[in-house]
Inverse folding.
């Protein structure tokens, strides 16, 4: 049962949508700002998370100032309301007030406000010129790769690519390091950075959708959604965390 003090607390609410696999980062971000999870719903590609937090109380001086202004405006507001009643021809019948006023009169909490806040947009060649240029660099160790990785770390990218190499991760037998390049597989042409999906299980970690081929490996063309992890200067690898993969 709620205590009396809790019943008097007003909350504001917001809903955010994030790509599956990035929920933890989003929750951490909003919790640092005082928000707490109310509910979450996982869809096929996105997770919808609803947060709430207590509304900030208004400073006493500000309340007093607003009250003073309201007192000055009260008389003309009443007169205007009377004129409106006369024009409507419905004497003695007041227009119903919004539901939030009715709730307040009944001693209930005011409805919480809801804001659909857009979080980090998925980066594609269509909406990001830097990413389009990155996928076309001639040198996999180009300085722009490190710059992009630092600037967009934690963001999700989406692009058509291909598997250039697949090898066991260390001594593991079911986990692999997968190199991915942009565009279709072509032995005679290599452009763009070398992306790596490190230490992944091809069954559970790639989140494959659609038709799955009997085998995957060098030469497989894919469509990839992944989160930017970091750039390793020594190997010139740009590490990604897979969010979703499909085969083309």
């Amino acid at each position: 049962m709620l205590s009396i003090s809790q019943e008097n607390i007003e909350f504001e609410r917001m809903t955010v949508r994030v790509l599956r696999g990035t929920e933890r980062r989003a929750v951490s971000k909003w919790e640092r700002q005082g928000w707490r999870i109310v509910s979450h719903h996982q869809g096929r590609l996105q997770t919808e998370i609803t947060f709430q937090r207590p509304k900030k109380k208004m400073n006493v001086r500000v309340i007093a100032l607003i009250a003073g202004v309201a007192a000055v405006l009260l008389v003309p507001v009443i007169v205007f309301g009377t004129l409106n009643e006369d024009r409507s021809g419905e004497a003695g019948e007041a227009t119903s007030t919004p539901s939030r006023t009715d709730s307040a009169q009944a001693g209930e909490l005011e409805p919480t406000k809801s804001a659909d806040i857009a979080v980090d947009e998925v980066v594609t060649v269509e909406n990001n010129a830097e990413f389009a240029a990155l996928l076309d660099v001639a040198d996999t160790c180009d300085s722009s790769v490190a710059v992009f990785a630092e600037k967009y770390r934690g963001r999700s990218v989406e692009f058509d690519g291909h598997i250039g190499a697949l090898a066991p991760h260390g001594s593991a037998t079911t986990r692999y390091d997968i190199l991915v390049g942009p565009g279709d597989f072509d032995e005679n042409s290599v452009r763009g950075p070398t992306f790596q999906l490190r230490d992944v299980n091809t069954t559970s970690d790639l989140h494959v959708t659609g038709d799955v081929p009997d085998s995957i490996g060098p030469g497989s063309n894919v469509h990839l959604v992944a989160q930017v992890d970091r750039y390793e200067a020594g190997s010139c690898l740009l590490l990604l965390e897979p969010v979703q993969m499909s085969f083309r």
User: Anything to note?
Assistant: The chain is about 25% helix and 30% strand. The chain has two domains: 1-57+89-119, 129-247.
